[in-house]
């Protein structure tokens, strides 16, 4: 299979390194961070690359100040979440003037999980969140494959559907049995796997920690800890609710999604696209897949969902400045305007509402309401 170029991410990292003292590239394991970092390194002569899962590199950093202080150019630290104690040392090194070296930090956890990053490197690091392949990177002709297998490179490019499913199954096992303990967390692996499976069945629904806690026979705070842990590891998205009208009885709990559609399908036991088409979670899977792709071109800090206790809802509400945009995800070739859409349009004072369907046609449904294909909307919002 032809190698997929991730030009936009590469350009973003290169640009940030030219303006900042350090850049942190964060995302789930196996999403392609190392490959991208090596491309950045190849363009910078004299780069030092240290993999913190390599025992030799770990031994070299037994005295981090002694090891890092003499280095110049670009220094890449891979799997930096394994050594949170490095952050105070990096702060000192990044405060040197003139600055002899810049750092590219690769991590499989958010700054909240990498203890001390936000505090120690505040003002000294630019963050880039990375994900698996997106539809813009694979091309729209590969949408069915990307949706079914997910965006992890080794899953997407596997020779067969069974090879892809096996990779995802192994990834889940490795995550709960090895990765979480390596980050200093020790939930019982079987309990965490059951929790992930439950989340797959709640995919696209409002978070209900009490109900999940009863099913798992654990406490509500425990399930809250689990979902926050998975969110910080980039496997789960919690889409926050939007509420501004005190007179409306709106939902105030987040919606939860498995961020990678391939992992969702593995947890649901779906081997292929025909299996997905006949499954009750088909619509929810499409919603999560389309959501993640759109958020790869939108700033997720401005993204919400909206729902009232009376049943009106909007899958994605995006607000930046004066622009108020609504997005509904419908797995149908002939979407139509619903009463819920009209309520959302009026209550949220939307400038435009897009109904995202799996086809490639764009057509008006009503004034300022448009049906549009996912790829075309991504291209439109990227302009």
Q: Tell me, what's the shape? A: globular
Rg over C-alpha atoms, rounded to the nearest angstrom: 22 Å
In round numbers, the mean pLDDT is 92
- Number of folding domains? 2
Main beta-sheet strand count, sense and barrel state: 6 strands, mixed
Percent helix: 40-55%
State the helix count: 18
Describe the structure.
The structure is a single chain. With 383 residues, this protein is an alpha/beta fold. The chain has 2 domains: 7-129, Rossmann fold (3-Layer(aba) Sandwich); 135-382, no CATH class. The protein has helices at 7-19, 33-42, 55-60, 64-68, 87-94, 117-120, 135-138, 143-149, 153-156, 161-182, 189-202, 209-216, 220-232, 261-268, 273-277, 282-295, 339-347, 374-382; strands at residues 22-26, 48-51, 73-78, 101-107, 125-129, 205-206, 236-239, 255-258, 303-307, 313-320, 323-329, 352-357, 363-366, 369-373. The strands form 3 sheets. Strands 9-10-11-12-14-13 form a 6-stranded mixed sheet. The protein has a 5-stranded parallel sheet with strand order 2-3-4-1-5, with helices on one face. The chain has a 3-stranded antiparallel sheet with strand order 6-8-7. Strand 3, helix 5 (87-94) and strand 4 form a beta-alpha-beta unit. Helix 10 packs across helix 14 (261-268). The longest helix is centred in the middle third of the chain and has 22 residues, at 161-182. The protein is globular and about 65 Å long. The two termini are 29 Å apart.
